[in-house]
Amino acid sequence: MTDFALGPFLMSGERLIWILATLVLWVAAALVSRKGRPDLNPWAFRAALAGLVGARLGFVAQNADVYQADPLSIFAIWQGGFALWGGVAGFAAMTLPLMWRRREMTPWIAASTLPALTILFILGQLLRAHEQFLPQDRPFIDLAGTQMTLEGPAVVNLWATWCPPCRREMPMMVEEAQANPDLPIYFVNQGESPEKIRQYLSSAGLVMTPVLDPSLGLMAQTGILGLPATLFVDAEGRVTRAHIGEISRAALRQGISDLKKGTP
């Protein structure tokens, strides 16, 4: 699964694609607005913002029960959680009325939108072309040293005790694992000793069965550059989605629900 390091920041490939598409939209609108043509810059900014807000509100609506219990988490957008349909609705709500009121702008708006859609399609296809699978050629071990394999469908969380976002999300993820016994969540520790892991679990009061990956082989094979990372794996062992960074309860539940329904 592809992610990118931008200086000290780590970003998933999917998020980077959307950012690039937004930048392309703004640049295209700026170019189209030259030489006496209609000024599309205000529209491009507002439409992109409306798309972002719509995508977030759409996801919040899909997971209303989670956000009712913790309303402030609606603003934790770094934890992920966006609905494509909501983004399309927000973009359309800002664009279609303008095209209706000022029909002479329609071809220029289309000319600005087309490059952004092209970037989304091409980079999205390239990202899907780099499919990753859970390794089946080597076993992992648990704290007792017993060998085990990771099989889908499942959620795989890559973590370490020195990682603050890992520690923040861990209690929530353990709760969700206990609430979904029919779909395993594997907590794969990256590079730490059994003693260090036992000490952390004892001090945090967490009851779960960690998986040890002392050589960080799973990070290397899936192309993950930082922790935490949460992988959603289908029945064939294919990584269908990867969330880089701390994940919200709603995003985790959505991923689990999709795996249970067999959707990518």
Tell me what the structure shows:
With 264 residues, this protein is an alpha+beta fold. The chain folds into two domains: 3-129, no CATH class; 140-261, Glutaredoxin (3-Layer(aba) Sandwich). 52% of the residues lie in helices and 15% in strands. It has helices at residues 13-32, 41-62, 64-69, 84-101, 106-129, 164-179, 194-204, 217-222, 249-261; strands spanning 3-6, 9-12, 140-142, 147-148, 154-159, 185-190, 210-213, 229-233, 239-244. The strands form two sheets. It has a seven-stranded mixed sheet with strand order 4-3-7-6-5-8-9. Helix 1 (13-32) runs antiparallel to helix 2 (41-62) and helix 2 (41-62) runs antiparallel to helix 4. The two termini are 14 Å apart. The relative contact order is 0.15. Residues 108-261 form the Thioredoxin domain.
Rg value: 21 Å
Give the biggest sheet: 7 strands, mixed
Which outline best applies?
A: elongated
* Helix count, DSSP H or I runs of 4 or more residues: 9
Question: How many domain regions?
Answer: 2
Percent in helix = 40-55%
Strand pairing plus helix content: what structural class? alpha+beta
Average of the residue pLDDT scores: 87
Number of strands: 9
Termini gap? 14 Å
Strand percent estimate: 15-25%
